[in-house]
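> forwarded from #structure-qc
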């Protein structure tokens, strides 16, 4: 095989975006992926249930601008166009589901919290998001949980200015046939070598050597897309130089933790029907939790937790993580609800050695770091991924676009 000009490390959304850009420009390239599947944090699978569900990304965020919507249309992906309606969510608090007035109050409190974080960030105040979140008393536990899901970690460790770099458009469409499935299908025609793990990247007089578990690949340039936590762990080594310096600084934009437990049900509890989310504030049960309510394709609930509760749950193991979700359902609906459960499956992103977390956020005081790292010139060793997107940070479409952009930049510097 002739040497590729570009080696792309990782076949997640960013690696696939980079590959599609190389393909479009007629540049010989290969994608190496350590796992036995493509997609990375975009993954649609059953996990033993009777239908597939998204273990990682599920919503096409910023859907009115998201470049993956066009791919979804081209590939016949099934998604739902919807706005943010109040009726989308329900809140259980103090022993009962809220009424319409309480739902409106909880929704307004949530909007006010995100507006406060946004205003702080836009004013350039690089402080923990927790310091500017108004205390909405009764609704505070649920709001904290939603912030953890949106940022991937606790508000005490997330920069408000970094969070505000995300250009929210309030248009988020769930991918009913699976966001992971869409991203996998985008990669159908790309040259991807599965089970090939990069261990070391070395710049030589001739170009770049990528040392892998299957030998060395010689190329002119490399695009690295592993998560910031994987790179910060030292799993891929870089010789002293601009790339190694950048990797040293990735601890400032770490990935948080975010896990899901999926339940298939024989029937959907009436209080959940017609909704998209339920926040359960059960007081004693380790803070509020969030359930995604899925009715297309059969009744299913997906329990979402992030930040410290997710790390604690992963440490306790999948059985305990599942049990925590069941306990919330039992608190709300009583013990009989367990008879509706026909199957469960749990994610484990936080301890997956190829991912090591959820998605990135800037630490307080480090918002400028992400902005600077995106622009930094590291020569023929480029870095792409969700962490290297600014206005679409932490998302699948941000990762994809970052892959395309970095590939275009690298290609423009290649000797012909
Ligand atoms: C629970 C959860 C929910 C989410 N929900 C959403 C959502 O609804 N909408 C949204 O837009 N985003 C969401 N995200 C975020 C989104 O999934 C990610 O931002 C995006 O998929 C990251 O893509 P990436 O290519 O940057 O990284 P990754 O997907 O991590 O891809 C990197 C790839 O590199 C591989 N790799 C690692 N080390 C090596 C090595 N040494 N050699 C070769 N390969 C290696 C990995 O196996 C992986 O496949 C969610 C994430 C999680 C975890």
């Amino acid at each position: 095989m002739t040497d590729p000009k570009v080696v792309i490390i990782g076949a997640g959304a960013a690696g696939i975006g980079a590959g599609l850009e190389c393909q479009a420009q007629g540049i010989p390239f290969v994608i190496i992926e350590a796992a036995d599947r493509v997609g990375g944090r975009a993954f649609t699978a059953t996990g033993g249930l009777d239908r597939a569900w998204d273990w990682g990304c599920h919503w096409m965020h910023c859907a009115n601008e998201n470049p993956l919507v066009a791919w979804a249309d081209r590939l016949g992906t099934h998604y739902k166009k919807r706005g943010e309606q109040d009726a989308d969510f329900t809140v259980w608090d103090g022993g009962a589901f809220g009424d319409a007035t309480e739902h409106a109050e909880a929704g307004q409190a949530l909007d006010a919290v995100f507006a406060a974080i946004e205003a702080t960030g836009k004013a350039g105040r690089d402080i923990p998001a927790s310091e500017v979140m108004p205390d909405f008393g009764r609704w505070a536990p649920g709001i904290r949980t939603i912030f953890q899901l949106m940022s991937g970690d606790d508000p005490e460790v997330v920069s408000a200015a970094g969070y505000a770099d995300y250009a929210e458009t309030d248009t988020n469409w769930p991918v009913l046939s699976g966001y992971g499935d869409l991203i996998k299908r985008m990669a159908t025609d790309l040259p991807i070598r599965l089970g090939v793990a990069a261990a070391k990247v070395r710049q030589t007089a001739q170009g770049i050597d990528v040392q892998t578990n299957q030998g060395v690949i010689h190329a002119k340039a490399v695009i690295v897309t592993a998560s910031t936590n994987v790179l910060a762990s030292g799993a891929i080594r870089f010789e002293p130089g601009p790339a190694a310096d950048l990797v040293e600084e990735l601890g400032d934009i770490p990935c948080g933790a975010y896990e899901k437990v999926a339940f298939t049900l024989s029937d959907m509890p009436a209080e959940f029907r017609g909704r998209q989310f339920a926040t359960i504030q059960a007081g004693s049960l380790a803070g509020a939790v969030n359930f995604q309510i899925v009715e297309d394709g059969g009744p299913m609930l997906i329990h979402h937790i992030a930040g410290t509760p997710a790390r604690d749950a992963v440490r306790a193991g999948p059985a305990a993580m599942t049990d925590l979700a069941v306990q919330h359902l039992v608190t709300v609906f009583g013990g009989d609800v367990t008879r509706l459960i026909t199957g469960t499956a749990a994610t484990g992103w936080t301890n997956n050695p190829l991912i090591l977390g959820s998605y990135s956020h800037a630490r307080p005081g480090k918002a400028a770091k992400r902005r600077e790292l995106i622009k930094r010139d590291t020569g023929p060793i480029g870095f792409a991924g969700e962490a290297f997107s600014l206005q679409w940070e932490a998302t699948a479409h941000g990762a994809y676009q970052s892959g395309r952009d970095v590939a275009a930049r690298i290609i423009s510097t290649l000797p012909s």
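QC bot note: The CA atoms of residues 362 and 370 lie 7 Å apart. DSSP finds twelve helices and 20 strands in the chain.
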